[in-house]
Specification:
By secondary structure, the protein is of the alpha+beta class. Helices cover 43% and strands 19% of the residues. α3 packs across α13. The longest helix has 25 residues. The chain is globular and about 65 Å long. It binds a DNA duplex through α2, β3, α6, α11 and β9. Pfam families: IMS, IMS_C.
Length: 443
DNA sequence: ATACATACC
DNA sequence: CACTGGTATGTAT
């Protein structure tokens, strides 16, 4: 429940005061109670892990270490310095666009979002501890002069599109991860530019946005780099093994994309804080984690990541969800359910897609989240069929609750991709957490 | 296949 | 007045 200071712009602020304000605003709320419940769950997981660790003997761990070393040798084989990968990240993107369009916002603390939730904040606001994913009303407590500008996605989409146009000149296979970040493989671009100084690569865009670059031999490292030297900095990891190992040596695992708050505490509980700790504890980690996770940890410890920048295949799911003031009367719950089906179908039709697995997501006023899914025999984009499926799932939930009412604050629908029958399996060069990837046959 | 958790922006 | 919304993926059953 404390301030997340993993990100940039939070260097010299009064964390203690900020955390106190956040706590005062949150404590006693249903939200806070749920967060505490979740924290307890994580603690339980750590305790279970601890118990498991105590059941291992030293010889087992040594054996696992040897096995891990063999895996590491295979990873080392795949180490590749032939590509130059760039990760670009538009700093405080939404806020930057708003400041561009209204310069009077430039020198005052400002954030984009609403009183319920902020998407991002400018650097003035960050000085007060105001940051992305913070509710606006808490931000206002931290910084009473904060100006909150409503989100204007269409505008950000347009700017994002303009920037992508430019990036495409550097890499036609450029891979956007969101409106404000992308990976590029500029190997080809560099080869075509003679006398190009690798240490002085710069991108020029006409938009005036600030942006960060990470330049490295792979995507994992490039992403970490782009977070260095904020704001508007760039950071390059030299293309040799020693430089990579030096970089990774003291790098906190939390900085690595894919290792979040929970994984970080689980690892921390066994003394793994930096990437080199992942190597140090490889014997133990092999025994504790799945093959997928362990392989990923080993790669991180070696500073090895994907070198293939390419857009993913088709989308795998599409969803719509909405938060609202409590609803508990069945008639209203069903009406909301129908409304969401309509909204989802509208989105499906925009992309001419159908769904096979319908998932109903609900969040109670205590913030408990439940999902119920049902797979149809055939994919559909028909509102009535979607609704009748979702309605049945909702009815079951209402009955399970009764005679108490089902008291909700959120409802959502999603549709899972129709599984295509003729998928071939191909080995994936990398993947954050996956070893295998499924090829989808074209529609 | 289903449910739930984690992670990312 | 008030703690999002969208997508992917891992883990467990």
């Amino acid at each position: 429940m404390a301030l997340n200071d993993n990100k940039a712009g939070m260097g010299n602020l009064d964390k203690e005061r900020i955390n106190k304000v956040i706590y005062e605003m949150s404590k006693g709320s249903k939200y806070y109670e749920n967060e505490q419940r979740k924290e307890e769950q994580v603690k339980a997981k750590i305790a279970a892990q601890h118990k498991q660790i105590q059941s291992f003997d030293a010889r087992e761990i040594e054996k696992s270490e040897l096995q891990a070393d063999a895996m590491l040798a295979a990873i080392e084989e795949m180490r590749d310095f032939s590509r130059t990968i760039v990760h670009i990240d538009m700093d405080a993107f939404y806020a930057a666009v708003e400041m561009r369009d209204n310069p009077s916002l430039k020198n005052i603390p400002m954030a984009v979002g609403g009183s319920a939730m902020l998407s991002t904040s400018n650097y003035e606001a960050r000085r007060f501890g105001v940051r992305a994913a913070m509710p606006g009303f808490i931000a206002k407590k931290l910084c009473p002069d904060l100006v909150i500008v409503p989100t204007n996605f269409d505008k950000y989409r347009q700017v994002s599109k303009d920037v992508k146009e430019i990036l495409l000149q550097y890499d036609p296979n450029m891979c956007p991860m969101s409106l404000d970040e992308a990976y590029l493989d500029i190997t080809q671009h560099l080869a075509e530019r003679k006398n190009f100084d690798a240490e002085q690569k710069t991108f020029r865009t006409a938009d005036g946005e600030q942006r960060m670059f990470g330049i490295a031999p792979n995507m994992m490292l490039a992403k970490v780099c782009s977070d260095f030297n904020k704001p508007n900095g760039q950071y390059l990891i030299p293309f040799n093994r020693q430089a990579v190992m030096d970089f990774v040596k003291d790098l906190p695992v939390r900085k690595v994309c894919g290792i979040g708050r929970v994984s970080c505490s689980m690892l921390g509980a066994m003394g793994v804080v930096t990437c080199s700790d992942l190597f140090r504890k490889r014997g133990l980690l092999l025994k504790l984690y799945s093959a997928i996770s362990f392989n990923y940890f080993l790669r991180v410890s070696a500073g090895v990541g994907s070198t293939s920048v390419q857009r993913g295949d088709d989308r795998k799911s599409m969803s719509t969800e909405r938060t609202f003031a409590e609803i508990n009367r069945p008639a209203e719950l069903f009406a909301k359910c129908y409304e969401l089906c309509e909204a989802l179908v509208e989105d499906l039709k925009k992309e001419n897609l159908k769904g096979k697995t319908i998932t109903l997501k609900i969040k109670t006023i205590k913030y408990i989240v439940r999902t119920k899914a049902h797979s149809l025999l055939n994919a559909t984009q028909d509102v009535q069929l979607l609704y009748s499926t979702a309605r049945d799932l909702l009815r079951t939930e209402i009955r399970l609750c009764s005679p108490e009412p089902l008291r909700l604050r959120l409802m959502g629908k999603s549709r899972g991709e129709q599984k295509l029958p003729f998928g071939a399996v191909k080995p994936k060069t990398d993947g954050r957490h996956t070893l295998l990837n499924y090829f989808k046959s074209p529609k």
